[in-house]
Amino acid sequence: MRKDSIIKKICEDKGISMRDASFGYITELSKDGKVHHIVGESLELNSASSYKIASDKFACFSVLVQNEVPSIQYHMIFNPETRSDYENNDMIKAMILFDQYGGKVILKANDSSEGKDVFCITSKEELKKKIIEEFANHKDSVSICPFYEIGYEYRAIYLDGQIIFCYKKEKPYVVGNGQKNLQELMEDARIENTYDDLDLTYIPKLNEKVEVSWKHNLCLGGVPNLEIDDETRKAVSDIAKRAGDAIGIKFASVDIAETKEKELLVMEINSNVCMKKFATNVSNGLQIEYEIFSNAIDKMFEA
Q1: Model-level pTM greater than 0.85?
Q2: Which of 15, 35, 199, 220 is least buried, going by the fewest C-beta atoms within 10 A?
């Protein structure tokens, strides 16, 4: 969130005073005797409990499945050095899950965001290595989930029990010019390859589109798309609303995967709503971002 632009403009338009604290990490908003805060990218809307649930992949999954919200299956793997009271044989559990899911899984840090600390694993040796690396980086736990062939990811913005906006994300791709190879095209586009079997020396034909990553994150080159048919929009919005309601959150984005079988499954809920990449990659994106945060700030001052 750009406090120096979108939030500043909203506050100016609404007559809200702003001042920073803690080197700009905290922004204090005040109007008509009411004072609220933005901490980092988090508006003062969500309860501490809903924020913590959304910030933990496995905890969020547990609450969603308990409330019968269709979700991607997560399994917790604990760090034996810091969480020994929970499990002692979790590495064995991880290997069993690897076999159970056909030799291809996704490993995530439970507090991961923006595609960081998220890995597609295709061997037990790699799985063990990555788990050890994550634990060495002071992660208390990681989650394992099955790998799904995902066409689109959908992001729905949830505010006070309603879905106020929705868009879909396409996987990162490059477009050929008939001269540069994939490695060069990705370097130009600042996109990271996540496919192990991609021939980086291949030279795509003129206007040939080549998908280069299984991740949909906009910050990693994913492409936002506003074109969603009415039936899919309703289905995505219904599931996203159920997800937000289930964890009792007030303002969040809900990420939903569409599998190749057209099944819609909640991937995660983000308690910090970030639209920077979206706003700069679609027409009228800044205005959409403005309206979403304007509505959220109105809700904040209703309290």
Answers
A1: yes
A2: 15
